[in-house]
């Protein structure tokens, strides 16, 4: 994808490279070619899609960067989650469940976006300093807030 191995990324440059690669590799371009070339195109196009999806969002990008350094966040082993964060998450989820209007859900969504933006900055700083354990803790928190962001979207769609 010709991008720096950095948490901070030029998304427009990433999108441009993605489209450029898909124009070259998309299976539709190989419909008149041999089966081997069609399979190659399909596999390469799938890899480009996976890379793009991974790099596009800060959470998946950060998790990938940790994985490159040999660190993974295992499900169910979130030692970074303290009782204070759990209480905050529980309160946000309860408020979202109780939201009666799109505006109430939007307010929760806006707060969550701000938290995610702040976490993104903190993760970028930690990764730039080589503080992988700190980045791992912050990415664990980001994972929870990204989950709330998805719940907000679901709640907003239920109002329609």
Automatic annotation (TrEMBL):
Residues 82-153 form the Co-chaperone HscB C-terminal oligomerisation domain. Keywords: Chaperone, Cytoplasm, Mitochondrion. It is found in: Cytoplasm; Mitochondrion. It comes from the Eukaryota. GO terms for biological process: [2Fe-2S] cluster assembly; protein complex oligomerization. The keyword Ribosomal protein does not apply. CDD domains: DnaJ (cd06257). Gene3D superfamilies: DnaJ domain, HscB, C-terminal domain. Pfam families: HSCB_C. One of its GO terms (molecular function) is ATPase activator activity. The keyword Mitochondrion applies. Signal peptide: none annotated. One of its GO terms (cellular component) is mitochondrion. InterPro entries: DnaJ_domain (IPR001623), HscB (IPR004640), HscB_C_sf (IPR036386), HscB_oligo_C (IPR009073), J_dom_sf (IPR036869). Belongs to the HscB family. This is Co-chaperone HscB C-terminal oligomerisation domain-containing protein. It comes from Mugilogobius chulae. The lineage of its organism: Eukaryota, Metazoa, Chordata, Craniata, Vertebrata.
């Amino acid at each position: 994808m010709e991008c720096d191995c950095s948490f901070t990324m030029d998304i427009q440059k990433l999108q441009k490279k993605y489209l450029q690669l898909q124009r070259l590799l998309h299976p539709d371009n190989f419909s008149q070619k041999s089966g081997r070339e069609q399979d190659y195109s399909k596999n390469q196009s799938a890899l480009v899609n996976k890379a793009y999806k991974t790099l596009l969002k800060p959470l998946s990008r950060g998790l990938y960067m940790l994985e490159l350094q040999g660190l993974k966040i295992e499900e169910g082993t979130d030692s970074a989650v303290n009782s204070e964060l759990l209480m905050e998450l529980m309160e946000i989820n309860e408020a979202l469940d109780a939201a009666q209007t799109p505006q109430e859900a939007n307010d929760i969504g806006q707060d969550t976006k701000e938290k995610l933006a702040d976490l993104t900055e903190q993760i970028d700083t930690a990764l730039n300093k080589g503080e992988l354990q700190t980045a791992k803790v912050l990415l664990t928190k980001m994972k929870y807030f990204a989950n709330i962001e998805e719940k907000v979207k679901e709640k907003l769609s239920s109002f329609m």
